[in-house]
Write a structure and sequence with these properties.
By secondary structure, the protein is mainly beta. It has five domains: 46-128, Immunoglobulin-like (Sandwich); 150-371, no CATH class; 382-465, Immunoglobulin-like, CATH 2.60.40.1120; 479-580, Sandwich (Immunoglobulin-like), CATH 2.60.40; 586-665, Carboxypeptidase-like, regulatory domain (Immunoglobulin-like, Sandwich). The chain is built from seven helices and 48 strands. The chain has a nine-stranded antiparallel sheet, with helices on one face. Strands 3, 4, 6, 7 and 8 form a five-stranded antiparallel sheet that branches. The two termini are 30 Å apart.
């Protein structure tokens, strides 16, 4: 196995080692020299003490960044205004300077040049522009040209300025804010095909460093690439704020505005200007339009030895504004492919070798709490999102539904009462989506629900699976030119115990004319654009057996459900994938039970599969279980483990089922948040 390393978090100052032969007197002389030098610099420092007021008024502006610029525009020092709008900046040397006041979401203000003499202290008042920035006027039509510099296009410049402000605030927080962080870190090994978590290790710790997410120096990345791959190890580097703001990055990447599928969001895509043998990065900076700010960065890799889908290599950074005005990287992750050599042979002889994807590793983390320098809690600009999911088909709340905010890692699972809770969601516009095996079986994807998260307002959303007739009708409505009646249903064997796939469903009119179709793997069918107001005859047949004939009349705007039954015990059936199976042939059910958080395999969990046959078993040391000789049909699966909430769910096994189950349990007394 090739070890894959993540170069995100090198500890500052630990890359070199002190010379153990240095004497104590040598260290003392070095300390005195540094102290005297710094004292001399401090005595002759050039300082500006100022205040930032809103233009046309005397209202102070807190949490604004003041950047000291040389006359050629190069930043030399930065400061953040306090609650009364005051700031203090020291210039590195005497000379002429300008100051630029920046606020994310507002127009910037540039002052006239000021002259600073050696050791001079200047008091200055800045009247800053209070006009908010709008990104609503940016409309993306088609694929626009990727410009080499974000300042060369009006749209890219507008987007880059707001992204740059956020990144500058992140850098200031990293270098100047006296924060501590309580951080959860994780390391995962993923199935490279299905992206399932195979193994995971998590840890929670408090770090006092200014930045829990650090990349590699920009010049080194430009010279050596964003990945170092060899047969002994693979090392991947991710871009942080310092990299994205550097000239080394801006000189080698072009930018263009891109549209987003999420409401209230627009993107600034970047990619390498020219192809290079070195691994590079591409991606999108996603900005929210209300309020304006940089929400996240998604990135992937170019120049890897094997061409991979986007979700196999890359990562994401999520940003958040704190109540103090500082910005932090709230969450980060990186997915790293691992390659291996594969021998190619022809008639037994070795012809050549090639690199193939061997595995995937993922590392990342999340800041759970931001603490002050003394360890006290710091209020953050986040909100708890609560809600519920209802199953209109069954007429009851829907447990075990996976609720998420589209395009983010925010997720939660509904409890037994259908409710869910997401904690510490940053302000912004989101789209709430949910999934559930019931929806998968119906082939139905519900539309996302837009919601705005803002401080001071309760954030709650109600979601639901619509009635079955509405789902089937919606499926017909998506077909071009579809009109008329809708007939849908399921074909069962015996008393609605086992759905029958690959059955032939026939609909005939009294005046002639026949339409037919085959049921899917779950025994379902749906006819669109059917005649209304005229009698229809419907039956199903399979393997020489036929259901009773049903007679009905469809009405406009009222989808009709019809269930039919065929007695097929012991019959051979050809499945849609070409397999020939014997209905009622015993199946094998196997799977794994994991505990949240951390996806920990749970050994000794008690499992009961209850139905026409009841099976009881316990998980092994790896959380796995296997039950042989289970007849197809409807079952209820119950899972219990000490210290975890019990799991109760329905389970349908038929001749086309892949009886592979993964069950996640949540600790007792905790919300079912992922």
């Amino acid at each position: 196995m090739l070890p894959t390393l993540l170069r995100l978090l090198p500890a500052p100052g630990l890359e070199g080692r002190a010379d153990s032969s240095r004497t104590a007197s040598g260290r003392l002389l070095l300390f005195l020299a540094i102290f005297l030098f710094n004292s001399a610099v401090a005595l002759h420092a050039q300082t500006i003490h100022g205040i930032v007021l809103s233009s046309g008024s005397s209202v102070p502006i807190p949490n604004a960044m003041v950047v000291l610029l040389s006359l050629d525009g190069a930043p030399t020092a930065t400061g953040l205004t306090d609650a009364s709008g005051r700031f203090s900046i020291s210039a590195p040397r005497p000379g002429s300077y300008r100051m630029r006041v920046e606020r994310v979401g507002y127009e910037s203000t540039l002052t006239a040049p000021v002259q600073l003499g050696s050791g001079e202290t200047l008091r200055y008042t800045i009247h800053a522009d209070a006009r908010p920035v709008s990104l609503d006027g940016i409309v993306v039509r088609g694929r626009r040209r990727c410009v080499p510099n974000p300042a060369e296009g009006a749209q890219t410049l507008h987007l880059w300025e707001e992204a740059r402000k956020t990144l500058n605030m992140v850098r200031w927080t990293e270098n100047s804010a006296p924060f501590q962080y309580r951080i959860r870190r994780f390391q995962r090994e993923l199935d490279p095909q299905r992206l399932r978590v195979l193994r995971e290790r998590t840890s929670t710790l408090v770090e006092a460093r200014g930045n829990p997410f650090v990349s590699y120096p920009p010049d080194s990345l430009a010279a050596h690439g964003y990945a170092k791959l060899s047969m002994s190890e693979s090392v991947y580097y991710a871009p942080d704020a310092a990299v994205l703001l550097s000239s080394a990055f801006l000189d080698r990447h072009c930018f263009r505005a891109v549209a987003s599928e999420r409401p209230g969001e627009i993107g600034l895509a970047f990619q390498p200007i020219r192809r290079s043998p070195l691994p590079d990065v591409y991606g999108v900076l996603w900005l929210t339009t209300h309020p304006v700010g940089l929400r996240s960065i998604e990135y992937g890799y170019t120049g890897l030895p094997v061409t991979l889908p986007k979700d196999r290599a890359g990562g994401q950074l999520e940003f958040e504004r704190l109540s103090s005005g500082a910005w932090i990287v709230r969450r980060w992750r990186i997915r790293m492919p691992r390659f291996a050599e594969q021998s190619l042979r022809w008639k037994g002889a070795l012809t050549t070798t090639r690199l193939v994807l061997k595995g995937l590793e993922e590392e990342g983390g999340e800041i759970l709490d931001v603490l002050t320098g003394t360890g006290g809690p710091l209020d953050t600009a986040t909100v708890n999102l609560t809600g519920s999911v209802y199953d209109s088909i069954a007429g009851r709340p829907l447990p075990h539904a996976a609720v998420s905010l589209a395009g983010t890692d925010y997720q939660a699972v509904t409890g037994a009462d259908g409710s869910f809770r997401m904690t510490r969601v940053p302000e912004g516009l989101y789209t709430v989506t949910f999934s559930h095996p019931v929806l998968d079986s119906l082939g139905f994807v519900p539309e996302g629900h837009p919601i705005e998260i803002s401080r001071g307002r309760a954030a709650r959303v109600s979601l639901a699976i619509p009635p079955l007739a509405s789902i089937r009708a919606a499926g017909c409505a998506t077909k071009a030119g579809s009109q008329g009646g809708v007939l849908h249903g399921t074909i069962f064997e015996e008393a609605e115990v086992l759905p029958i796939p690959a059955a032939r469903v026939v609909v005939s009119r009294a005046r002639g004319g026949i339409v037919e179709q085959m049921t899917d793997t779950l025994g379902r069918y749906v006819f669109c654009d059917m005649p209304t107001g005229t009698p229809l005859s419907v039956y199903a047949e399979l393997a020489g057996r036929q259901s009773l004939v049903a007679r009905l009349t469809l009405v406009d705007g009222a989808p009709r459900e019809l269930k039919l039954h065929i007695l097929l015990a012991g019959k051979q059936v050809t499945m849609p994938d070409g397999r020939t199976v014997l209905l009622r042939t015993p199946l094998q059910v196997h799977g794994v039970v994991r505990g949240e958080p951390g996806m920990i395999p749970l050994a000794g969990a008690r499992i009961r599969i209850i139905g026409q046959d009841t099976v009881e078993l316990r998980t092994n040391s790896k959380g796995g279980f296997s039950a042989a000789s289970v007849l197809p049909g409807r079952y209820r699966i119950e899972v219990d483990a000490e210290g975890y909430q019990p799991h109760r769910a329905g389970l349908i096994l038929n001749a086309s089922s892949v009886a592979d189950v993964e069950i996640r349990l949540h600790p007792v007394g905790r919300d079912a948040d992922l």
